[in-house]
Amino acid sequence: MIRDGKQRGWLSLPVDSLPVWAAFNSVSFDGVDIGPLPGKEDRGSTVIANRSLKGRHESPLITIPRDLILSLERIHEHAKFDSDFRAVLEGLDDFGRTARGAILAFLLMQSFTACPSVVKKKGVSGPFTEYVKYLPMELLPTFWSSAECELLTGTTLAPALTAKLNSLHREFDQIQDATSNIPWCAEQWWDEVDGIIEFDDWLQVDAFYRSRALEYPGVGDCMVPCIDMANHTSGTGTAAIYEVDDQGNAVLLLRDDKDIEENGEITITYGDNKGACEMLFSYGFIEEDMQSARELFLDLSIPGDDPLGRAKAAVANCAPGLKIVDAVKGVIWDGAYIWLICVNEEDGLSFQIQQTVEGTRELIATWQDEPVHGFEGFRSILEKDPLWDVYHLRAVSILQERVASQLRDLYGSDDRVDAAKHGDGTDIRDRPWHLAKRLRLLESELLEKAYSHYEDQKLQLMQSETVLRYLSGPNVEQEEDFS
Ligand SMILES: C[S@@+](CC[C@H](N)C(=O)[O-])C[C@H]1O[C@@H](n2cnc3c(N)ncnc32)[C@H](O)[C@@H]1O
After folding, report:
1. pTM exceeding the 0.95 threshold for the entire prediction
2. SET domain: which residues (predicted)?
3. Minimal CA–CA distance to 131: which of 15, 231, 2?
4. How close is the Cα of 109 to the center of ligand 1, in Å?
5. Domains of the chain
6. What is the whole-number distance in angstroms between the Cα of residue 231 and the centre of ligand 1?
7. How far does CA 366 lie from the centroid of its chain?
8. Which of the four pLDDT bands, split at 50, 70 and 90, describes residue 52?
9. Measuring from each residue's beta carbon to the nearest atom of ligand 1, which residues come in under 6 Å?
10. Which residues contact 428 (CB under 8 A, 6 or more apart)?
């Protein structure tokens, strides 16, 4: 439905008509317009200064009345007088009480309400029925073909994308199940012949939300018309910030330290720390002058031959992975799961079945006979142990091996990606090919940096007296290999 509307025009309005929509809805602009920036049209529309602007001397560049902030609260307000939408939202149960669930369902409903071929009209039109017409279809990786997704082999985006598509399928099934008993939904959304909602619509509303949602101070995750037309620049390039004013309206403010020439672009930041993978995943681009992947997430699994593996997996209350962040000196990593992998029974880890106050039985972990309440803080317990350097060395070795296996996957698929035909007449578009190549390069550079950082750390830890004593001592049941 949505793709059809964007292509045929019934769900599409030219951005030069946005000022009319804005005036009609009491949105005010001061010193800025919205439209494509000459030379950067491939980035869609953006906020452009229509006169020279001086930091500290400008009033809000854009003011959006609080009623137009598309938040969970606003959607629940709308549902009070839109009984058709209320039925959909109530069907979604807990999912409808999250900002994401409510906003996606609302955007789907508003697109349906706007559809001219619907005979039995449903839903109440409002400012957003028109606003969805200004939202472009972003080419996020969830819309990449399978040949394009193949280009991501070995990057951290590949598993993230698979997981996202699985979760989008689950959400779509959920909305279908939740609304199939509403007669008009059964007939107009889901009927095998006449129903007009399909999985692609869920991908579209997800992409609208993911690429435009802002975490607004005091409001939470939401969409804010017009301010969501601002493109991204990180660091000192960011020209403006978004806030709520004392009446709860959303405002776009020029940064104090910024002067913008007439026709200059007013950008915001979508998150200065977001890595290349997340930028591509959520916004479909990687900033041109990004020099590093910034951060990457790697999954971890407990080795199959770990005698306590099943018990560890059962009690682990932390994500099975780690985050590596680029730093001025080497890399920083974060993730509690690894500590669970690198200790075992001979070190002092054990498991017991305990009776709870409710009378049920639960598995609990103990370290040196003391119960471990959650593994998030396990590192600080290990740090106090006389054998800390040994555990630390094990963790660094596991990390380095995980990084090496990621590099093998990445380099092992490089030739295929390089040789992949792309462009007109192929099933790989130029843009995904270039973005995948860029991500591969940035991630391989960060992984290489991490690998040599861990090598240095390992060499250092190998000199530790604790480690030397441990390795030559009688307690080492199995020879440990830190090579
Ligand atoms: C919040 S929207 C910004 C408005 C959008 N340009 C439009 O036409 O509606 C985010 C999208 O803008 C584009 N974008 C924003 N900043 C960009 C940048 N620095 N480089 C390339 N594309 C950018 C991406 O397509 C992204 O998904």
Report:
1. no
2. 30-271
3. 15
4. 24
5. 2-266 (3.90.1410.10), 295-472 (3.90.1420)
6. 5
7. 35
8. very high
9. 43-46, 136, 138, 211-212, 228-229, 231-232, 283-285, 287
10. 145, 147, 148, 151, 420, 421, 422
